[in-house]
Automatic annotation (TrEMBL):
PANTHER family referenced in this protein's UniProt entry, alphabetically: AUXIN EFFLUX CARRIER FAMILY PROTEIN (PTHR36838), TRANSPORTER AUXIN EFFLUX CARRIER EC FAMILY (PTHR36838:SF3)
Matches recorded under Pfam families: Mem_trans (PF03547)
Subcellular location(s) per record: Cell membrane
Chief subcellular location: membrane
InterPro entries: Mem_transp_PIN-like, Na+/solute_symporter_sf
Family the entry assigns: Belongs to the auxin efflux carrier (TC 2.A.69) family.
Protein name from the UniProt record: Uncharacterized protein
Keyword annotations of the record: Cell membrane, Membrane, Transmembrane, Transmembrane helix, Transport
Gene Ontology, cellular component aspect: plasma membrane
Transmembrane regions listed in the UniProt entry: 6-26, 33-52, 64-83, 95-118, 124-144, 164-184, 196-216, 228-249, 255-276, 288-312
Membrane-related topology note: Multi-pass membrane protein
Length: 318
């Protein structure tokens, strides 16, 4: 019962957002405003304030990179090969379906959930996962640029450079890199700065999770069911299982193992929709998969956390 007392309020925030969206209680565009606030203000404040005081030993621990990053790379490669060479999908289609199977919404779901349940100690793995996934997005951008240039006969170089620049200016990535750089100095944050960042960072959990619930479009979920079910199963079940297996192999610590699995078990990130729209790769289908995985994760992520709590008793507390 103790674990449910920790987890139910978190998922209740998402459900509250879904209810508010269904009854149209708030104006259109509210979810976008909340997401922008979390993306540009609250999440960067939380990441920088925590990472700035982390030890370099924890920051450079290879176990998390191997378990989470390795699972993402393996599953992306398998999915891409299967779709491209067995299902004979186009380069663009194979790329989008593959990336949706591994690209997690770490900033808006994993980070607030982990921070709410574990506190500051779980912020680091969520930040590392976000950086790993930015690399995945860069690889995806290269492949989509290749697909587009093949169809149009144009050069792919400018689009790739634009993608790299956009990734480096991403406030979540920028705050992570700045936090790591500050940690390397060995300095402590001034008390006033720490309090300021803490107040802003406290908004992450309610703001991000409510916005996620508010942005779930139930009416989209009935479109292209085979792709929705397939990608959602890979994303919410297969990827976390693979992460857990690799975590066992590298003897990852309990808190890092749980964090890695949670980062893998959250729904598909919205960046995939941005890419699908930009490169004209079935954006309606991508939106449906994001909504379906977000709705399903309310149940599957809760189940994963209950399983992990049973495997690592006593860890699900701050």
């Amino acid at each position: 019962m103790e674990i449910l007392g920790l987890l139910v309020p978190i998922f209740a925030i998402i459900v509250t957002g879904i209810v508010f969206a269904h009854f149209k209680i708030l104006p259109d565009g509210t979810a976008d405003v909340l997401i922008q606030f979390a993306f540009w203000v609250a999440i960067p404040a939380l990441l920088f304030s925590i990472l700035a005081e982390e030890s370099m030993k924890r920051l450079l621990d290879p176990g998390f990179y191997v378990s989470f990053g390795g699972a993402v790379a393996i599953l992306f490669a398998i999915g891409f090969f299967y779709l491209r060479h067995w299902r004979h999908k186009s380069l663009g289609d194979a790329t989008m379906l593959s990336v949706m199977g591994v690209f997690s919404n770490t900033a808006f779901v994993a980070l607030p959930v982990l921070h709410s349940v574990f506190g500051h100690k779980a912020v680091l793995p969520a930040a590392i996962a976000t950086v790993i996934l930015i690399v995945v997005i860069l690889v995806t951008t290269v492949l989509l640029e290749r697909a587009q240039s093949t169809e149009s006969g144009s050069s792919a170089g400018s689009g790739v450079l634009s993608g790299v620049r956009h990734a480096l200016l991403n406030p979540v990535i920028l705050s992570t890199l700045l936090g790591v750089a500050y940690a390397a100095t060995g300095w402590s944050l001034p008390a006033v700065a720490k309090q300021y960042l803490s107040l802003l960072g406290a908004a992450v959990t309610p703001c991000a999770l409510f916005a996620i619930g508010l942005s779930i479009k139930v009416e989209d979920i009935g479109k292209d069911l085979s792709a929705i079910v397939g990608v959602s199963l890979v994303k919410l079940i297969v990827l976390p299982v693979l992460v857990l297996l690799l975590a066992f192999l590298v003897d990852l610590t309990p808190i890092m193992t749980i964090s890695a699995v949670v980062c893998a078990a959250v729904p598909v990130g919205k960046t995939t929709f941005v890419l699908a729209t930009k490169y004209q790769q079935h954006p309606a289908r991508v939106a449906a998969i994001i909504s379906a995985s977000s709705a399903a994760s309310v149940i599957t992520l809760l189940l994963w956390l209950l399983i992990l709590a049973h495997m690592y008793p006593g860890t699900l507390s701050k």
